[in-house]
Amino acid sequence: MPVDLMRPSDLALLKQTSREIRQALHGSVTFAGLRKDDKIRITAVAGAGGGRLTSIVLAPARGLGGRSWQIGRALAVDDYAAAEDITHDFDDQILGEGIVSLAVAPIIVRRRVRGLLYAGRRTRSGSPEVLRFLEGRATHIAHELNIRDEVDDRLRLIRAADLAHHDVPTDLVHLHARLRELAHRVADPEVAAELRALAAPHPDPARPSGVRLTDRQIDILALIALGLKNTEIATRLGLSLPTVKSYLREAMARLHATTRQAAVVAARLHGLLP
């Protein structure tokens, strides 16, 4: 299956966040869009019919959003119609929805503006708390998009490694461990389960079977395979050191291994690690 077909819907993420902002700000008009090439089209709307606002296609420096895109930070105007330091390319859409005050925050991923997130009100509202809240939600979207991008990048590299018929390339060991880490950072349990499934090596009928380890035990062994110490593993996985040691002892017992590295070798023999 192509990588892009496995990625969760970015549009659904925008729509959900727009609805959450509208609820939190009690009746605001919220809308958002993601960048494609050098344009950002509004595709998610909450609190308005959507017909007007989804006709907005932004470029840098055009309108309040274009200005935010250009300088890379959140902006707000208390009286949109009277604002003199922005272009008014989208007055028909904004004023047509009765929006008086408007705030926008850029969605920045890897130092690049990937989208814009707006909150508008039909009354004057220059509250700095609104702007800070909007910035926080934009950061949340950016964080989720960055995780999805990382997953896509690693899946492409893993598939490239598979096509090259490498036995166990070092890069693949790193990618396997990183995928399992990302599975614990994704909020959606279905996406997390999919990531763990993708990280699982393909079973080999010639390998011994019968040993079962928990997800956390495999996470720990995957990081040991990278050469990490128990203290480093605890930090990476957000666990206490005693918890890491407990998982490791149980995994070693199940694998009949007497050392950490022997446990990694045994896990590979059983097809549990690449």
UniProtKB/TrEMBL annotation:
Pfam families hit by this protein: GAF, GerE
SUPFAM superfamilies from the UniProt entry: C-terminal effector domain of the bipartite response regulators, GAF domain-like
BP-aspect Gene Ontology terms: regulation of DNA-templated transcription
Segments forming domain HTH luxR-type: 206-271
Coiled coil: none
InterPro entries in UniProt: GAF (IPR003018), GAF-like_dom_sf (IPR029016), Sig_transdc_resp-reg_C-effctor (IPR016032), Tscrpt_reg_LuxR_C (IPR000792), WH-like_DNA-bd_sf (IPR036388)
Protein name: GAF domain-containing protein
Keywords carried by this UniProt record: DNA-binding, Transcription, Transcription regulation
Superkingdom field: Bacteria
